[in-house]
Amino acid sequence: MTRVALAPTLAVTALLGLSACGDAGSGSGAPAAPPKPEMTPAQKTALLAALPAPYNQGDLDNGRRVFARCRSCHTVTEGGPNMTGPNLYGVFGRQAGGIEGYNYSNAMKTAGFVWDAETLDHWLENPHTFLRGTKMSFVGLADPADRRDVIAWLKVETGYAPPVAAAGQ
Fold first, then answer.
1. Residue 150 burial (CB < 10 Å; 0-12/13-18/19+)?
2. How confident is the model at residue 65, as a pLDDT?
3. What is the pTM of this model?
4. Which CATH code is given to the segment(s) 41-96+104-158?
């Protein structure tokens, strides 16, 4: 075997050997948090039904597609980072400007409202006319069906999913 051909073989062998050293969970010494359980279809249906009309009739698949435009600035995962915009996990019932550590505009810090479906609808229609002085660069969603669907999806995606009790409990 030539040296040129031998180098990749040795590199692969070394990497395989190193990967066998220790286990993946030995880094911090603390046990990994259990993954958040997936919501059941019944839990998703209950969250959707809890929204007032017309949001409770939202098309979740379309809401997910529409929200794709928002992902460059927002996360929706529990404990997820703030980005250009704040993490939207748990947005329903949250005080506007209420995520500690996020650099909100003065307008948002002093807005004084709580996010609900109707407030989100007006916000998403045109953030700049809803709250003058916001730093959000998004121009809005003109289509009421798209707003309804993204609000429904956001509620289901970021809503609280209580643990399911085992049978007989």
1. buried
2. 98
3. 0.73
4. 1.10.760.10
